[in-house]
Write a sequence for this structure.
């Protein structure tokens, strides 16, 4: 009988080859101490964190910590139950109220992770005979949610409005349609032309979901996301989001104004068949969301740091994923897997942590991904730039003149 | 009415530029094993076939379309539905 692991042999060989080259392992890095949203200790050395998605630096906010400590003491370590059984505490309701207020929407539903929020929406909302139309570069949680459900799944070319329109026109009359978009695409940090896409989807009579995981907190006047900045708030049916980025905790959510929205609490299986978030997590999240609404200075600083890092890396000759800083994600393109691993190792040796994106996440691309934090000081950003230049020399990465 | 007899030769014409391995193309040629197409190429090829017939081939249908003949059957079935 075959070993069921045999199908993974090419991946095992690839990983072992990478390790045999004497480079550091980018996928099993251990943070021994976390000093702040932007600093950690690895192997006894302090490093600057530039790949955490901790955009707004809320993880150590004193009000957030205090809310969590209080909830931990008063409500205990965990809920031991589903949201629809014994797992809805005062904190979960408070967290949903904070989201309704933040988004100015009628309904909010908190899931245990952002991944599960997408699984829940995609798998439940569209059934047999319905269509989900998604961007080809959609996050794995969107694809996986589609795979869990029974709808027909149609992809359009990344950020291509004409291709979306063409595909919508081919959908048979009478079928229900959900168009799924993301505000910011996390691989290279580009944003969607939401104004045009939402117009096309609305004209076709589709419902629209926008995942704002990488935009919450710093796009739009109230920090709601790219859909707010694009002025399409009234035309979007669902906004999906996460607590594990700007909010600084863990969890996921959907907000909506649809009058029948609450029924999703019964039919979204990733909501029903898992334990709810621990009391400390929902308390921290609610406190964080309330502060994000008014975090105008942090927003301004995050944008400034992102634009400066993008401009400086570009001027230094690095090849970046976008022409300008469209978000707080700055992706540096590497020529191949080996150089990517060498550059990642050189950066860690210099004291900079970035994400090395596994190639299976971005077929055809080798990326080192930076994400900025509102708490990065100007001095830290200058240090990151200097270390990138030195690491490129160490790793033998050719820079453009 | 489209028939498999007319669809199959046209599909082979569309697939030919994707046939880097120079494999013999017929109804039994498989995409994964014979043509060794990666996921990005499958997406491009699917889009070309969709444009040719002004139709949709949903992503969830792809695992069942192992051979060129399977695609010809699917095109005929969807277009004549």
């Amino acid at each position: 009988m075959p070993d069921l692991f045999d199908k993974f042999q090419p991946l095992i060989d690839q990983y072992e080859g990478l390790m045999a080259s004497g480079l550091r392992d980018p996928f099993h890095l251990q943070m021994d101490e976390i000093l702040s949203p932007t600093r950690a200790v690895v192997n006894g050395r302090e490093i600057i964190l530039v790949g955490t998605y901790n955009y707004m630096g809320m993880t150590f906010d004193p009000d957030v910590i205090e809310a969590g400590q209080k909830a931990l003491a008063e409500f205990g370590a965990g809920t031991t139950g589903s949201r629809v059984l014994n797992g809805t505490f005062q904190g979960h309701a408070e967290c949903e109220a904070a989201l309704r207020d933040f988004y100015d929407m009628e309904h909010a539903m908190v899931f245990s992770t952002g991944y599960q929020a997408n699984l829940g929406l995609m798998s439940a909302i569209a059934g047999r005979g319905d269509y989900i139309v998604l961007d080809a570069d959609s996050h794995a949680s969107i694809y996986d949610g589609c795979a869990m459900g029974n709808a027909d799944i149609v992809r359009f070319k990344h950020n291509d409005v004409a291709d979306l329109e063409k595909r919508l026109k081919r959908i048979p009359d009478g079928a229900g349609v959900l168009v799924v978009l993301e505000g910011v695409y996390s691989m290279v940090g580009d944003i969607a032309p939401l104004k045009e896409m939402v117009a096309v989807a609305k004209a076709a009579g589709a419902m629209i979901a926008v995942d704002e995981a990488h935009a919450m907190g710093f796009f739009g006047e109230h920090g709601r996301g790219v859909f707010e900045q694009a002025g399409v708030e009234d035309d979007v049916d669902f906004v999906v989001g996460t607590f594990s980025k700007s909010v600084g905790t863990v969890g996921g959510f959907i907000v909506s104004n649809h009058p029948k929205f609450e029924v999703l609490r019964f039919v979204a299986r990733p909501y029903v068949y898992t334990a709810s978030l621990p009391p400390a997590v929902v308390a921290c999240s609610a406190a964080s969301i309330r502060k994000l609404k008014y975090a105008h200075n942090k927003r301004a600083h995050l944008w400034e740091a992102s634009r400066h890092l993008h401009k400086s890396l570009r001027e230094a000759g690095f090849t970046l994923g976008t022409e300008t800083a469209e978000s707080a994600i700055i992706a540096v393109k590497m020529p191949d897997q080996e150089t990517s691993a060498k550059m990642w190792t050189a950066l860690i040796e210099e004291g900079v942590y970035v994400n090395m994106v596994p190639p299976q996440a971005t077929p055809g691309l080798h990326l080192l991904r930076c994400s900025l934090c509102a708490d990065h000081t100007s001095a830290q950003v200058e240090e990151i730039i200097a270390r990138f230049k030195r690491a490129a020399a160490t790793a033998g990465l050719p820079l453009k003149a | 009415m489209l028939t498999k007899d007319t669809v199959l030769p046209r599909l082979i014409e569309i697939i030919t530029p994707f046939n880097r391995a120079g494999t013999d193309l017929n109804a039994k040629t498989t995409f994964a094993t014979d043509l060794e197409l990666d996921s990005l190429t499958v997406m491009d090829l699917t889009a070309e076939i969709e444009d040719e017939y002004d139709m949709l081939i949903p992503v969830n249908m792809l695992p069942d379309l192992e051979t060129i003949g399977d695609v010809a059957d699917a095109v005929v079935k969807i277009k004549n539905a």
Summary: Residues 39-53 of chain B form the longest helix (15 residues). Chain B touches chain A at residues 38-40, 43, 47, 50, 54-56, 58-61 (CB under 8 Å).
